[in-house]
Amino acid sequence: MLDRLQRSRHRDLLVDVAVVLVVFLVYLLQVGSQGFGEYEDRATDADGLGFGLILLTVLPLLGRRRHPWAAMAIAGAGDIALVACGYSINVPAALIVVLYTFAAGAGGPGIWPPIAFAALLYAIQVAVEIAAISVSIEDYALPALLLAGAWIVGERRRTASLRRAEAEERREREERLSIAEERTRIARELHDSAGHAINTILVQAGAARLLRDRDPERSQEAIEAIERLALETIEDIDRIVGSLRTGAPAERAPLPGIERIPDLVADHRRAGLKVELRESSDDWRMPPPAVDRAAYRIAQEALTNAARHGTGQAELTLHHHVDRLELTVVNPTAAKPAPPRSAGGFGLVGMRERAQLLGGSLEAGPWNGHFRVRAVFPYGWVRE
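-> structure tokens emitted (384 positions)
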């Protein structure tokens, strides 16, 4: 940032030096040619005084960005002094440059004060030159047009700069929003993956402990399920954290969808949860990838909650409509539910956020003596 600012200042300084040299040459040309030969018998010849006045007129242009009002006053006064001494200065080049600087934004948001001040200085110059050299008023039509053109060009540049600044600010704002959304999504992915795995491992570990003596085979199956789930979760976390390190979106890696729900149900069955899976369709179609992933994650969280807080039974229903996907998980509520975590949980909040981000809805709460989670995902507006 500092290097860019230094480069910008260095570039501005080079531009200002070049402008001063060009304006100085314009003044020398006017004074040396005595108005391009039109007023040879009336205009003063070029001499040391004229050279010094030209220097005093153009050198303040070096500070026109920081002190535009002072630069305009000195430029106008220099033009007036030159014509008062009889030098032919028909084009007020220094005043034109400072007026352009004002229009480009250096003098603040006011429009009329610099225009009025420049017009006053130029009017004085015209009056003095007409009196000193007896030139006609028509000779100042072109310089007046140049002054007006300088303001118009500077105003357009200021407008273009404002638009670029607004576009840059909008881009940075969208970038910050994108980063915030990505962090939220990653947090949700970690919660869903790790939270489901830990809860399932707890259930499987409890089953393995209880069945260790009376049913060693099922106890061994529970231990194998713990090992398999732990490996899958480690891979899932590595994928998500890896996306943070490389900057690549985590979605580029394969993510589970509703085609994995039968495997999810089988895992919970092995853990002791009696899950009934039902799937129906009015007009089956493959849901959009975003809906596919969200439905799996909601089913995963809902079954985990059913295993933790329910009575060991659950029913999962998937219904494919023409324009939407409905997912429902229902489980009987336990007489004595599991105690809530001390830090609270974000399961229901995360499920609702997933559904709402895709234009859908999620209902979760008591229903006919059961606890029901019902998510609806519309297809129409989802863009992939």
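The chain has ten helices and five strands.
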